[in-house]
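#lab-general

N.A. 3:47 PM
ok so I finally got the sequence cleaned up, no stray characters, all 370 residues accounted for. can someone with queue access submit it? mine expired

B.Y. 3:52 PM
send it over

N.A. 3:53 PM
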Amino acid sequence: MKRNRLIIILFTLGVALMIAAIPLVGACAGPEEAPAVVPAEKRVMKFIYHEPPDTWMSLNQWGWWSAKVNELAEERGLPFEFKDYPGEIICPAPDMSEAVEEGTVEAGLIVGPYEAGRRPLESIIELPFTFRDYPAQTKLWHDCLDAGLDEYFESFNLKVVCRQWTSPYGVWANKPIPSIDTLKGMKVRAPGGQMTAAVEKMGMVPVSMTVMETYTALQRGTLDGVSLMEPSIISLGLDEVCTYGLRINFAVTAGCLAVNLDVWNTLPKEFQEVCFEAGRLQEARNEDLHWNEMVNIAENIAPARGIEIRTITPDEREILVKLTRPQWDEWKESYGDLFNGLGNKEYEIAMAKVKAEEGLPPTRWMLGIE
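B.Y. 4:20 PM
back already:
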C-alpha cells in the first residue's frame, strides 16, 4: 500500500512539473508571429460591346465607363475589374443582351433597337422628337426607372448600371438631300424598334442591317443612306460612301450598360456603388461631349473631307413631327398594359415631359450649328 501511494505521489508531482514548464517552453520559442496577409485574388469580368475599341463611341462611352470603373476600384482597393471584349468578338450585337442575361458574360452594352423588340418598354426613350437635350432625356430615363423600368430589366436577369446615350440620329446619304422631300422612297439602314418605325413614317424605306454591313451596301447601291449617330459614321469610315448628312436629330437609341443580375448579387456593395458612380459621371458629361463632337464634325472633319451637312429647318421639323406623332399613341396601344401597366405609366411620364416643354425656346440640338 505504501509503495502504491508513493508511486501516485511521484506521478502527480511529475505531471505538475510538466504543466509548469509549458509557459517556459513558449517563452523560449519567442513571440508568436502574425499570419501573413494574402491579397484577395482579383475577379476579372467580361464586358462586351459591338463597336471596335478605337471608335469615338467606344472611347468616350462604353469603353470610358469600364475604364472609369476599373480606375475607381483600384483607388479603393477593391479586387474587381472589367475586361473589355469589343467589336462583336464574343457574339453579334443583336445577341449581346441574351449573352448577359444567360451569364455567358458578366456585363455588356445592350441596345434595344438591335434586339427585335426583346424589351419594348425601354423603347419609350426612342419615340421620335421627344429628345430635347441630354439632361431632359436623362431625367425621363430615370423617372421611368423609378416607375418600374428597373424591375422590368431585372425580370430579364439584368441590372442596369448606366444609361448610354448616342448622338441624335439623322440620315447620311450617297446623294444630296436638299429638302425633306428627297427622303421619300430612300432605302435607309435603320437601327430597329421605334427608330425604324420613325424612319418609315418620315417617308423612307427602312432596311434592317448591321452597322458593319452598311459600307458595302452603300457602295453597291443596295442602300441610299444610313440612319446612325454621326461619330460612328466617321469612326467606321462610312463618310467615304455617304458624303451628305441631314441632321434631323429625331431620337437617341435606348442603350444601356447592364450586369447579369445573378452576378450583381454576388458583388459587394462597395463595388456596386463604383459601377453606379461611373455611370453618373458618364451621364453628366454627355451633353457637352456629344455637342462638341458634332461641332468638330461640322467645322473640321466635314470641310476637310468634302462632306455636306445641314440641319433641318424649323418648318421641316414641324412637318416631320406631324408625320411621326401618331407613333406615340401606337406605342401606348401596343405596350401600355405590359408589366402590370408600366407602359401606361411611362407614356404618361413622357407626355408630361413633352407638354412641359411646349413653348420653350428651341435647344441647340433643334437649331443646329450656325
